[in-house]
Amino acid sequence: MAPRTLGEALGALSPDGLATLLRHREDLARPLPADLTELAQRALTPASVARSLDRLDAWQRLVALALATAPDGVDVGAVHELLATGTRADVARAVSDLRSRALLWGGDDELHLVRTVREVFGPHPAGLAPVSPRPMDPEAVQEALQQVGEEERTILDRLLWQRPTGALRRADRAVTLAEARSPIERLLALGLLRPADSETVVLPREVALVLRGGRLVPDPVATRAPELAGGTRAERLVQRAGAGAAWALVHDVEQLVGDLDRRSVDLLRDGGVSTRDVAALGRRASLSPEQAAVLLEWASAAGLVGPDGPRLLPTARYDRWISGSGADRWLHLVRHWRASGRWPRAGSRGGAHPLGPDGELRGAVEIRQGILAVLAGQPVGRRLAPEPLTEVVAWHHPAWAERLPLAELVADVLVEAEQAGLTALGAVSPLARVAAGAELPDELAELFPEPVDRLVVQADLTAVAPGPLVPEVNRTMRLLAEQESRGGGGVYRFTEGSLRRALDAGWALAEIERWLEEHSSTGVPQPLRYLLADVARRHGSIQVMPTSAVVRCDDPAQAASLLGRPEASRLGLHAVAPGVLAATAEPDEVVQVLREVGLAPVGTDASGTALTAPPPPRAREGGGEAEPPAEPVDAVRVAELLLGREADRRARARAVDSAVDVLTRAAAARTPVVVDLVTAEGESTTRRATPLHVSPGAVRLADAASGQVFTVPLARVVGARDDTPG
Questions:
Q1: Which one is predicted more confidently, 586 or 211?
Q2: Are residues 394 and 421 in contact, defined by beta-carbon separation less than 8 angstroms?
Q3: Where is the segment annotated Disordered (predicted)?
Q4: Is the dihedral of CA 267, 268, 273, 278 positive or negative?
């Protein structure tokens, strides 16, 4: 029997068919529906239908539009005739796609578009009015059109493609061609316009189709996705270039976030980062301000940075992230970017700030994933250009092209894709498929540089890392030296400030020399030893202790010099003994000011023990982090579960139907039966009774032992059987 409703059509689906529906419309399975009835109800909701229509490609959407303009119950042939494009097989394929998404039901000879879909397309789908009660044939329409002038044509053109109705007072009055005094009256007299009511005229469908030349939409729609032209690059070359760009992304994010450990960045009131701070961060990491802004957004989406009061700081997740392999760190960045509800480059337009509220874009996750899916569907090495790619994306997602600046969004994704290695040398990289959700193959993971733990320390006070450093060595080098270059390896420069930073952190001169000897393949050059000794000698020559603070100088002349500085009055410095100064400011403020004037003080406690620098502060995790990508619905398992529940429901219904037959026969014969039922408390019980009357919703019984009469709803009857003595 043919299904009569969408619910019946879903109940007749095979396990594969139901799994296909759930893959197309995952929202139907979140949360898990109780049964197929609830699934059908969800499939009819306006939000779910609109989301599913947004995911149709241009050809599927055109066929759905044609079905919305056609009467209910049409066949595939009638839809093909209405479209006047493509082949009947193309139409049948699109109909099958729509059926698999539960947007229509019925066989090819009788198609029923879901009512909610018709509502989405509105009262005039494709700008066509409903079929006229007495339609004109095409020949009559052509004959009438030969009698219209330029003014009448202008009115018809205005009503042709968008809205086929217009306002007119006393639109339903009778008018002849001889009596017509205006272009609209002439059109009414010729039958090319008809009154819809007393205040509205409408362009009849048959007239519109003749004027359109049989077209449903103004521009032709391809039945298949257009192919990108422009040639290809060597796959191996693009693969290696993509892996290099992917590693550069990891390195740049590490440098950018690591810089926040050493230099405080204050957030604006709206939570964004100022243009000046973004430019400074980018300059120190050898990045343009635009690149720095985007990477700050990536780092925030990945949970590597977050707000700590008014400041932007790394999080504890950053410390864990830098200890991972290059491939794992890249995956973490890309997958959180893919799931981010923000649009980084959108925040760089119009003077907006990264991490600020202007970076939010409704539907960002689905738009980004849709563009990535188109990229991932291209062969590796296919050359890319924004305009052709926009055309392909627009075919796959025509609803986006109607309401979004799609060209700008595609260009934004291409810029970020190049930065992340998803494209390289202007062509599609195999990493695009990984970003779209595929697993990272071993051969691609192996292209990320292997970390090393050895350095080449040179006499010009630099150290060269021949590859990415292992996390422990990298952390120590960023403490001992300033990183100067980007890339798979890196160049570090030892300075007075960097070595003093290590001494502040509690490292002794001997420990620094020993560590360098262990990790340098060239030993420790003499110039570096001289610099180390000089910095260590001066480090701590000034000591700050609480009282509120006492400054002790090994050289009395240096103490006298301090008293003559402008900063002395701000700190409240005054001499208490040769080489000893007292300060009214707190010790940490005294240390900070003395460092700012070029000295190398060290803080001590009251006993004179040097205090090491505290661990860097960390922001709370989860501030602006993107939700991790949701696990896809296990469509096969959910389909099996729902079909199993449906089978159980039908079995119970058959059992109740059978029990009703037994009870009806026994009531007619007044013979006892054994009834299995569920009590009002939910307990199962069995009673021997004589049925007295069976109504549509309940059965009245007399207990065989006591004669007590009671009524049981049929919904609580599990089974019934004759109690004839054997």
A1: 211
A2: no
A3: 604-630
A4: negative
Q: Express each pLDDT in 623-670 by its tens digit.
A: 555 555 566 778 888 888 888 888 777 776 676 668 888 888 888 888
Give, in degrees to the nearest 5, the angle at Cα 594 between 588 and 595: 90
322, 320, 361: which is closest to 340 by C-alpha? 361
- Reference 36, options 642, 441, 614, 631; nearest CA is 642
Q: Over 90: is that where the pLDDT of 49 sits?
A: yes
Both tokens of 657, joined, read: 């139907």
What count of other Cβ atoms lies within 10 Å of the Cβ of residue 496? 14
Is residue 6 within 8 A of residue 622, CB to CB? The reply is no
State the DSSP code for 530: H
The residue among 489, 466, 469 whose CA lies nearest residue 479 is 469
Single-letter residue type at 129? A
HSE value, Cβ hemisphere, 13 Å, CA-based, for 279: 3
Q: How far apart are CA 551 and CA 2, in angstroms?
A: 95
42: confidence class by pLDDT, cuts 50, 70, 90: very high
- Contacts (Cβ under 8 Å, ≥6 apart) of 47: none
| CATH tag for 542-603 (out of 3.30.70, 1.10.10, 3.40.50, 3.30.200) | 3.30.70
Amino acid (1-letter code) at residue 587: P
Instruction: Considering only the C-alpha atoms of the chain, give the largest distance between any 2 of them, rounded to a whole number of Å.
Output: 124
pLDDT at 177: 84
Secondary structure element (H or E) that encloses residue 104, with its range: strand 104-105
Provide the b/e sequence for 79-104 (b: ≥16 CB within 10 Å). Answer: bbebbebbeeebbbbbbebbbbbbbb
Q: Say if residue 146 is exposed, middle or buried (CB neighbours under 10 Å; 0-12, 13-18, 19+).
A: exposed
Amino acid at 241: A
How far, in Å, CA of 527 to CA of 525, rounded?
Answer: 6
Amino acid at 510: A
Where are the chain's structural domains? 6-122, 138-211, 235-445, 456-537, 542-603, 639-722
Q: Buried b / exposed e across 35-49, counting CB within 10 Å, b at 16+?
A: ebeebbebbeeeebb
CATH number given to 639-722: 2.30.30.100
> Is 403 in contact with 228 (CB distance < 8 Å)?
no
Residue 47 has pLDDT above 70, yes or no: yes
pLDDT computed for residue 350 by the predictor = 47
Amino acid making up residue 662: V
* Under 8 Å between Cβ of 304 and 316: no
Give the Cβ contact number of residue 598 at 10 Å. 7
Distance (Å, whole) CA 129 – CA 152: 19
Between 138 and 544, residue with greater pLDDT: 138
Cα–Cα distance measured from residue 299 to residue 618, given in angstroms and rounded to the nearest whole number: 14
Which amino acid appears at position 235 of this protein? E
Residue owning tokens 């160049």: 491
Q: Of 98, 43, 46, 31, nearest to 67 (Cα)?
A: 98
Task: With a cut of 50, say whether residue 726 has pLDDT above it.
Answer: no
Closest C-alpha to 128, from 72, 82, 76? 82
The pLDDT score that the predictor gives to residue 92 is: 95
Contacts of 571 (CB under 8 A, 6+ apart): 549, 583, 584, 585, 589, 590, 593
Q: Which fold has domain 6-122?
A: Arc Repressor Mutant, subunit A (1.10.10)
**Count of alpha carbons within 13 Å of 186, Cβ hemisphere only?**
15
The residue count for the chain: 726
Q: How far is CA 635 from the centre of its chain?
A: 20
**Cβ(408)–Cβ(344) below 8 Å:** no
